[in-house]
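Possible regression after last week's pipeline update?

I re-ran a chain I had predicted before the update to compare outputs. Posting the input and the new output here so someone can diff against the archived version. Not blocking, just want to make sure nothing changed silently.
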Amino acid sequence: MLRVLLTALVFACLSGAGRAQIAAADPAPQASQESSPWYRTISLRGYTQLRYNGLYQTNPELGCEQCDRSWGGNGGFFIRRARLIFSGDVHPQVAIYIQFDFASNLSSTSLHGLQVRDAYFDLALDKKKEFRIRAGQSKVPFGYENMQSSQNRLPLDRADALNSTVPNERDLGVFFYWAPEKARKIYRELARRPNKGSGDYGCFGIGFYNGQSANRPELNESRHLVARLTYPITWGNQVLEPAIQAHKGLYTLPSDNVSSGVGVADDNTYRDDRIGATISLQPRPFGILAEYNVGHGPQYDAALDSIVLRDLSGGFITLSYMVQWHDQFITPFFRGQYYDGGKKVERDARSYKVNEYEWGVEWQINQAVEFTAMYTHSIRAYEDNRTEGNRQTGDLLRLQLQVNY
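New output (post-update):
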């Protein structure tokens, strides 16, 4: 197996497959397998993000565990992501996608660990690849910003309101996707920079997944069900994409993530369901991305010192304007977000009330390098058994250098 992997890597590098294309999660069509062995069609690509969050920080106690763990405290330079992706067609109707992150934070004291982010294959059920089955660990089709690669997103982190439903955006499961050939062509175009596409997750998607989030073992016998419906509408140079999505299942809190003495439901298991709506308008030049969801999930109640089932709601809107200057793209943006609910994967299903406003600009210097500066004003109340009454307000200037390869 090691010899095959090394052989594939050498051929990919020599053929230059990794230099040409920076795309979203759906692998682009490759050369015919009848004329070329599969290992010549595998591409190698990736990106790295270096951040610094310590400028003009007004409150070192303000942080966001779900977002970027270099917020607050002593901060410093931080590698947020270091991704390497193997993808391509191993058969005219079978594609693979494997993504590693070399900068995962495995604990509060251990940085830059190796972690599998994606490992799945797509089986096309027809020659046009309009009908596909995806099996393995992949992104769950809930929320445009969740499916959108961090390589393409304007704000530095995903919004709490939708990302809290599928932390790490991924899980193990089996999904069915359908999209007509015309729509798939649009999705491939939007995946190319400087566009801000979400990747090709079909116009209709439905599937089952474990529900405990990526790289975590399943803890109950119930699978989550998710479904999403959308369609890209084009006129002139613009693309508008409305969508609705929903999921439901049961989530089990890991025992080691619940503080001693905190009350929990039987078997630590809670109802976990949401429904959400999306409107996306590509920045050509003016862009909008707005999402909102409501649902139910586990949440810490300080008055009861227990984790209870509660309603949740929240969303965000991102406004942007893209300007081209020679071969460079400059995109100022604004995002406002709100969330009231729990975060099931954090300690004691930590309770949150978030109001946050961000102003920033992304500068794509060339295909390989981009720079983002973002000013954040955040009001966050978040409580668990150890931090009752915790409410933090603060401002900070955040910087990111991204290299694509």
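Follow-up from reviewer: compared with the archived run. The chain has five helices and 18 strands. Marking as no regression found.
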